[in-house]
Amino acid sequence: MTISDFTKAAADGDLETLQKGIEEFKNIDTPDQDNQTALGKAVLAGQLDAAQMLLNAKASAKVKLNGDKTIIQWAREQKDNDIAFLILLYNYMDRIAYSANIWEKTRKTFKRPDDCRYCDICSGKIQEEDSLALDLDEVFESIPYTDRLYQQCLALQAPQFRNKDRKEILDYVKEQIKNNNKSDCYMVCDHCTARFFQNIVYGNCQEDLVEAVNEIMDGAGSGKE
Ligand SMILES: [Zn+2]
Questions:
Q1: Separation of 82 CA from ligand 1 center, angstroms?
Q2: Residues paired with 122 in a beta bridge
Q3: Are 42 and 10 in contact (CB under 8 A)?
Q4: 183: which residues sit within 8 A by CB, 6+ positions away?
Q5: Helical segments of the chain, H only
Q6: What is the DSSP pairing of strand 131-135 with strand 125-126?
Q7: 85-91 long-range CB contacts below 8 Å, 24 or more apart?
Q8: How far is the CA of 53 from the centre of ligand 1 (A)?
Q9: Residue ranges covered by each domain of the chain
Q10: Which of 149, 156, 197 is nearest to 174 (CA)?
């Protein structure tokens, strides 16, 4: 099977061939001659089952779909679209697992019982259940957040920002954060998520997404008992 056969199976919703490809290819995110991955083709063709099969096999939604947009960025802009919802749901589940992992590591570094972690945006105290991890690129994708950051930078009147436009200033700040922050990730409180990262985390379907995640978590919990 070639990569083109594989991505075509995704576009056609040919689940049998798709499953064979998932088992055969080491990297299921390899782009075809149209520069699309199998997940991208499933999304563009509206093939829900194929998309789910690929997401279950850990296909990436952070690859480019069309133009400059990634699959996840496309999904955030959709309304009442089952595939977009599925993409956002898998992304959210991954985020919860990633956050749990970071908290586990963080707790190992705590020395005293009252040690805690602080929100990387507002510096308020946070717990695992009221925080979420965002990677640095996502943080800088948020217009409400970058708007505020840009205004803060202007207010500083720092010489390094003189004669620079918005993008140049934000790129500079992002680079500084990258150089100073080993983890490349922000842990953000619920309040700051609601204020700045609503669209990044939930797209247009926060209520349905939270409900679906709770159902999955309840299901996982009762399965173990
Ligand atoms: Zn906060």
A1: 31
A2: none
A3: yes
A4: 102
A5: 3-12, 15-24, 38-45, 48-56, 71-77, 82-109, 136-139, 143-156, 166-180, 190-196, 198-202, 206-224
A6: unpaired
A7: 85/205, 85/208, 85/209, 85/212, 86/48, 86/51, 86/52, 86/55, 87/43, 87/51, 87/55, 87/61, 88/202, 88/203, 88/205, 88/209, 89/209, 89/212, 89/213, 90/55, 90/61, 91/61
A8: 36
A9: 1-111, 116-206
A10: 149
Amino acid in position 154: L
Asked if pLDDT for residue 225 goes beyond 70, the answer is no
User: Under CATH, what is the fold of the domain 1-111?
Assistant: 1.25.40
Q: Dump pLDDT digits (tens) for 34-56.
A: 999 999 999 999 999 999 999 99
Phi, psi of 204 (to 5 degrees): -100, 15
Vertex 85: Cα angle to 213 and 192 (nearest 5): 65
Alpha-carbon distance of 90 to 60, in angstroms, equals 10
Q: Is 25 left (phi over 0), alpha (psi -120 to 50) or beta?
A: beta
Which residues lie below 8 Å from residue 160, measured CB to CB, with a gap of 6+?
172
8 Å CB contact between 28 and 55: no
Average pLDDT value for residue range 131-145: 94
Q: Report every protein residue that has its C-beta within 5 angstroms of ion ligand 1.
A: 119, 121-122, 124, 189, 192
